[in-house]
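Re: the pair you flagged

First of the two:
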Amino acid sequence: MTLIKIALADDHKIFREGILLELIKFKKVDIILVVENEQVLLDKLTGSRLPDIILMDIRMPILDGIEAPGQIRLLYPEVKIIPLTMYDDKDMIYAFQKMGACGYLAKSTNPDEIFLAIETVFNGDFYFKILDRRDYLL
């Protein structure tokens, strides 16, 4: 079985550690990188061991929430990004789609939905639960 390589970036330690504990339960993932901000994420990404998916808070202290994913997509177009946020309005989700995100998760999401989103995106589909499929911009 191929494990899904995951990177996690969030500036809130309690959230980072909590989601990490949940991800460890999901036997299909290999957590290869856990960082506290988007700049460290950009610095630590390397072509030799890129994640398949980055779960990434969009409100971190150094780069804008749209800027960092855009840079990652330019440098590593094969890496899929699922933003994590406490905001769940459609305008923000459309902005994620435009910057190339493959999914979206609210921080209030339950662990089963996180696992579903990871599998869905890894298998080449998109995961924007709040949107109806006909609303997808992609």
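Second of the two:
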Amino acid sequence: MELAPSEHRSRRLTAIGYPAIRPKRPDQGRRRIRRPDFIPIENAVARLKGLLRQAAERTVEGLWTVIGGIIDRSTATECRNYFIAAGYAAA
């Protein structure tokens, strides 16, 4: 059974004196929830996973070899850029 618009519970409650549910301050309304920036390791792991998919290696030893090669190719500048992109101050 569907209630008619005039019989909706929230309208009945406000009619008998209950206050409508409203945010206390204007900024507590429906605001977008922001996710904190990625931590630097997430960006590095995402890159590692992408390169592992490209390599398409299927053996354990082969995967370790590919991972070692990816880590060897990572530069200090690249690692620093992960921290800068995450919002950390450059030193």
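Residues 5-27+37-85 form one domain.

-B.
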